[in-house]
Specification:
29% of the residues lie in helices and 28% in strands. By secondary structure, the chain is of the alpha+beta class. The protein folds into three domains: 274 residues, Vaccinia Virus protein VP39 (Rossmann fold, 3-Layer(aba) Sandwich), CATH 3.40.50; 87 residues, Nuclear Transport Factor 2, Chain: A (Roll); 65 residues, Archaeosine Trna-guanine Transglycosylase, Chain: A, domain 4. A hairpin with a 2-residue loop joins strand 22 and strand 23. Helix 8 runs parallel beside helix 10 and helix 10 crosses helix 11. The longest helix has 21 residues. The relative contact order is 0.12. The model has no long low-confidence stretch (mean pLDDT 95).
Length: 440
């Protein structure tokens, strides 16, 4: 068994009592891997029918599974197509605690990277409403944006900002704010030796103080009647119930609506804490903020329309067309203009870049679950060598009748899902998959 900190074991013994033996024995078992089906693109039943690995339901989230025998997951075409996200099983409890309203929520994920909870909440929102996903570390914010792109989320802005700055820019704007708070990581001990080495009672206390500060910013962003979903992957009372008790003592308009603790001996995964805090309602009108305004001149609009006519059935999906530095984006109508001042990494869906008198489309657009229907789609079975060749960055043959920008898709059951795009010329599909996404 792993050598766990003595102070940690003593505290867990005091906390769990008769369950302590089962808890400690769980550290002799291998960690369980989790897979969350991306219900923005498919559903659990459809995915289970085509999944190459053995799945078992977690009981935490309808679209959540533990997965057995999965190797090279990130290289599989279904992963590239964004049909699923590998997520620690017990962490799915934070997604389950979020309201599943599809009518148009405004949601802020305050500590979002690498994107598991953003993706889970976005899928349940079915492309409606607005999501602002924040990560304060630039490198992790870029990873977050890549996952948002792969999962096909059309209604998100990824920003890289301090929580207090978000609170100043968008007070009382959001229906839901999720805070997967930086913590001492006790729930990672079974699979991360570094978390054990970094742990100390002082570190736990330091994390609790930082969590309280983040929650103050989160509270400022929640509209009346809205909620905060707070979660950690640690077990200490100090970072969990203690932080909640401190928050409630300072915010009389909030009440605890749900609390859940998961341990590795009682549920799949490494363990998690989740609490949903509800702000009381009021007759006062919610705060209103201007949305992002269209920003495109006649020539830019004409070039975008030309692209839509040459590549899509039925034209572009609904949204605000926004052009900056020749990059064309399709942004949800309700996206607040303030996000443009919060160090955005991406906003909405990047359609493409205007160059040489045309719009050259972007990978993001072909991945986005926007309802767009492509005029041309080149489809391959997941084990087709030609699909592997395309994912490695090579050109592949296509029908002679194909001309122009085309989606390249993987077939999954009766449906096909984009994994990238290319340009068809004389029976050859020229590869436009971004080099950083090549699968070799």
């Amino acid at each position: 068994m792993k050598a766990l900190p003595e102070a940690f074991m003593e505290r867990m013994h005091n906390t769990l009592g008769a369950e302590y033996g089962d808890f400690i024995r769980s550290y002799e078992e291998p960690p369980k891997r989790g897979l969350r089906v991306n219900i923005l693109k498919t559903d659990p039943g459809e995915f289970a029918a085509i999944c190459p690995w053995r799945l078992e339901k977690t009981g935490i989230l309808p679209e959540g599974f533990t997965v057995l025998g999965a190797e090279n997951v990130g290289r599989h075409p279904y992963h590239v197509a964004g049909l699923f996200y590998m997520q620690e099983p017990s962490a799915m409890s934070a997604v389950a605690a979020c309201p599943a309203d599809e009518s148009g929520l405004k949601l802020l994920d305050m500590c979002a990277a690498p994107g598991g909870k953003t993706g889970g909440a976005a899928a349940r929102m079915k492309g409606r409403g607005v999501i602002v996903a924040n990560e304060i570390v630039p490198k992790r914010a870029r990873l977050l944006a890549q996952n948002v792109e792969r999962l096909g989320i059309p209604n998100a802005a990824v920003i890289c900002e301090r929580p207090d700055n978000i609170a100043r820019a968008l007070p009382e704007f959001f229906d839901v704010v999720t805070v997967d708070a930086p913590c001492s990581g006790e729930g990672m001990f079974r699979k991360d030796d570094t978390a054990i080495l970094e742990w100390s009672p002082e570190h736990v206390a330091s994390c609790a103080e930082r969590q309280k500060l983040i929650l103050e910013s989160a509270a400022a962003c929640v509209k009346k009647g809205g909620c905060i979903v707070y979660s950690t992957c640690t077990f200490s009372h100090e970072e969990n119930e203690g932080v909640m008790e401190d928050f409630i003592s300072k915010h009389g308009d909030y009440s605890i609506e749900l609390t859940e603790r998961l341990y590795p001996h009682t549920s799949p995964g490494e363990g998690h804490f989740v609490c949903r805090l509800r702000r009381s309602d009021s007759a006062s009108a919610p705060a209103a903020y201007p949305s992002v305004k269209p920003c495109a001149d006649r020539k830019q609009l004409a070039l975008t329309d030309d692209f839509a006519a040459s590549a899509l059935k039925g034209g572009l999906p609904d949204g605000v067309l926004f052009v900056k530095n020749d990059t064309v984006r399709l942004i949800p109508h309700d996206m607040p203009e303030a996000v443009l001042s919060l160090h955005p990494v991406s906003v909405g869906v990047e359609l493409g870049v205007l160059k040489k008198g045309r719009l050259e489309p972007s990978h993001s657009f072909f991945m986005a679950e926007t309802g767009a229907a492509f005029l041309r789609s080149l489809e391959f079975a997941p084990d087709d060598p030609l699909l592997a060749a395309f994912l490695a960055g090579n050109t592949v043959p296509c029908p002679e009748a194909f001309r122009g920008w085309s989606a390249v898709c993987v077939r999954a059951g009766d449906r096909a899902y984009p994994i990238g795009f290319g340009k068809a010329v004389d029976g050859v599909m020229k590869n436009h998959l971004p080099k950083g996404l090549y699968v070799n």
